Amino acid sequence: MPKDFLKGARDEYDVVVIGSGLAGLTSANILARQGFSVLLLEHHYQLGGMATWFKRSGGHIFDISLHGFPIGMKKSCRKYWTQEIADSIVQLKGIRFENPQFSLRTTFDRQDFTKHIIEKFGIEPEVVQAFFDHARSMNYYDDQTTTTRELFERFFPGRSDVVRMLMEPITYANGSTLDDPAITYGIVFSNFMHKGVFTFQGGTDHLVKQMKAEMERNGVDIRIRTLVEKIEVTPDRRVSAVHVNGRRIGCKAIVSNANIKSTILKLVGEDHFDPSYVEDTKAVRLNNSSCQVYIALKPGEGFDNVGDLLFHSEHEGFDANAMLSRDVSSRTFSFYYPETRPGSDRWLVVSSTNANYDDWAYLSEEEYEASKKQLCDSTLDCLEQYVPDIRSKLDHIEASTPRTFQHYTRHLAGASFGTKFEGLKVSETLPEQIAGLYHAGSVGIIMSGWLGAVNYGVIVSNKVDQYLTPAPATV
Ligand SMILES: Cc1cc2nc3c(=O)[nH]c(=O)nc-3n(C[C@H](O)[C@H](O)[C@H](O)COP(=O)(O)OP(=O)(O)OC[C@H]3O[C@@H](n4cnc5c(N)ncnc54)[C@H](O)[C@@H]3O)c2cc1C
Questions:
Q1: Ligand 1: nearest atom to the Cα of 416
Q2: Span 349-375, mean pLDDT?
Q3: Is the CB of 169 under 6 A from ligand 1?
Q4: 37 CA to middle of ligand 1, Å?
Q5: How far is the C-alpha of 61 from the C-alpha of 64, rounded, in Å?
Q6: Does domain 12-51+205-285+417-468 match CATH 3.50.50.60?
């Protein structure tokens, strides 16, 4: 008989959270801490969503999305998780650019960027300061019609080298392009420029283990291998239950951490929404997906410090479309040293490239395997210039593609960073359509990434709290 992953689960909870990405985990933890009964349902056998890892024989552990996030993560983890989690967040100081236009190392903060833009690219200090001040002042309620391209044209006309330095890392960080609203760039860029790039020492497995322990302390009922098939709503448009692994579990509120389009169009179904809202949902564009190559060196084999994050490109100028091409010319290398996981003797490299789902989805199995092999080979060829003799030091190599991300997280088209900007409004207005139904997860570019997802989980759990807590009677 198949194992019952819902054994002992109750028939009714205050809140059901669908999905254990960083937004879902954070919402579940906060709501349980507030005293609500919370059921967390995750279809995968592991918690974390895109914040995940996998193990391979020989003791190798690969992190998928632990490349860098802004300092804000430290504060959010301290406030909404634990001091211990916050204390493991440390700075990565070796950020590197290698491309036909320039080669430089930076600590990736405002001071160091300002220095490079003035000294290396010869831009007037007042212009650089005005740009940083303007980016810093941007917020969600600002003008949303100016594009990032227009923003750069205003401050650095014709300077594709400066644009490349300012934009390439953000395109990797959240998939945004020059045609997206400038605020999606300004907010994320300024978050990084505040203090630099940070990581979680100990690895994603260690982080998620601590998050799980904290949720258990707060009483979250955590269930893996539980795929929610349906969100049940009443005729007067209130959530009433989820249908999962053949059971109906009642609830007063639901936080869906699943992809926003799947939540609305598949889990609930379009008949339950205003037609105009369904139109808006269908019009939401997904963000791009990714390919990665995971490379482990033989135990004890290492390399000199080549930096932590390396933005490598062979492309003449900055070009977001070229960055998505299956004919890879741009890669971000994350170098993991033994200090990344204290106690380990492993050096690992993960190469990431942005990718289009369609370029990978329709290949035959044979073509797919051949393309993955070709990606591994070309990545090693490229890496050779930073880690000489990489092939003789190699213990394990494999690749993932948009198909892999779709399989494990159920994001439509394997979207790594949720949706384009218009997805945010659809996500935020979901409870206006169906009482008690909320979405927390990667949308709108600014709510994606580790920090964006955690913070969106916080915002949404506050809204659920207000919904479930009746206002005190006025006398
Ligand atoms: C290759 C790659 C590299 C990245 N690098 C970085 C980085 O360096 N820095 C950074 O800040 N961000 C990075 N990101 C992005 C970041 O990892 C994500 O934006 C963030 O983790 C998303 O969190 P989320 O809460 O939106 O949920 P997700 O991680 O998308 O998780 C959603 C969860 O819901 C579950 N689910 C979906 N449907 C159902 C269902 N019907 N029933 C049950 N469960 C369901 C899924 O299994 C999944 O666990 C990267 C992403 C990728 C793919």
A1: 53
A2: 96
A3: no
A4: 24
A5: 10
A6: yes
